[in-house]
Amino acid sequence: MGNGFGRPHWYRWLHRSSLAAAASLAGLGVSCSSAGPRLAADARQPADARVAPSQSAARVRPTGPTPATDADGAPAPAQDASASPQTPAFAAVRIDEDFDAPKLERQFEAVARRVVGSVVAISAVDSPVASDEVQHAGRTNPDKLNAALESQDRTVGTGLVVAAEGYILTNEHVVGRAAQIWVTTDDRKVYPAVVVGSDPRADLAVLKVPAAGLRPVAFAAAPARRGQWAIAIGNPYGLAGDGELAVSVGVVSAVGRSLPKLSGREDRLYQDLIQTTAQINPGNSGGPLFDAAGDVIGVNCAVVLPVKQTNGIGFAIPAGPRLRAVVDRLVAGREVTYAYLGVRTTTAAPADCTAAGLPVDAGGARVDYVEAGSPAAAAGLRAGDIVTALAGAAVAASEPFIRA
Fold first, then answer.
1. What pLDDT, in 10s, does the model give residues 259-283?
2. pTM for this structure?
3. Three-state helix/strand/coil letters over 335-374
4. Which of the following is catalytic: 15, 17, 173, 198?
5. Which of 49, 62, 245, 251 has its CA 20 to 30 A from that of 141?
6. Catalytic residue (choose from 118, 123, 248, 285)
7. Is 285 a known active-site residue?
């Protein structure tokens, strides 16, 4: 299970499985790393299958006299006898005594029924398969595909339909090295797929399958919020390769997360991510993260697998205007390009700001390194400079500067 003594191993959400692997308790071959904490670089390596006990917390409601209410009937904030009249009181927290758990359960079921037709399981192999039957839609099914890939190392992932004409979005790391790709729908239809465009830096790729009349997902109009419900649907460990995609439910734990080590190791931009407690496993890569209304708020991309007594942590690329713009370009067959400046930056610390004659809380992107002959060098940027504005817009930290 590793020797990290409670520290997480970083892995991509990807699982290569041989269907001839030895069976374990759940009938699934697993490989456990003992190399200690590391950043996984090879998207095709076997993923650790670590199992940690689920942990839950019980909410305890204090007992005592019925709280006082204000003129509108709302609970009045408690008064501290030692506080002065000028001491601000915390807003009272109202507990909904009429919380309807069965209604919430029905909502999750309704969302799952409505959106599973827009999610697919992905299988990919690095070398061509000899069987001609699996190359044609309508002549194959999950059983025939599994038989054809039995001797192959298979990469598994998830995708979401973004256009009715057969366009499917997934992570680039799922299909980036694939020689052949197939998608399987929730109702067990199998289609061969081709990559029509990819953006490795954003870890996004668009596939095309020979199908029409597919049901595309709807993207949420508002960004994800901490604490809102999150529903992940996908193909964990390839278990949905025969159909019946898996559903897990959690909440948005945080937004704006970054994975700098993984970004640097794989030359991708894993920034401004959604962190979620919805259970995600290798094979969920490229799958959608829905809100409680069934709209996509993110595309799952990475996970910290559970080690020792820790639970896994999942991350998703937010489905905001930036992601949708990349998808539109890829569907249209256009290349996604990025500006090149030639610097490495970190967020300026208060001491850096003071040394540069800026207000102590000015922030900004501190230039740590300038590549010789780069546009940054030609513009006169030097190590130690602090960028506080770009094109008239304030720069408060390094990451917004990199994304700009």
1. 988 888 888 989 999 999 999 999 9
2. 0.71
3. CCCCCCCCEEEEECCHHHHHHCCCCCCCCCEEEEEECCCC
4. 173
5. 49
6. 285
7. yes
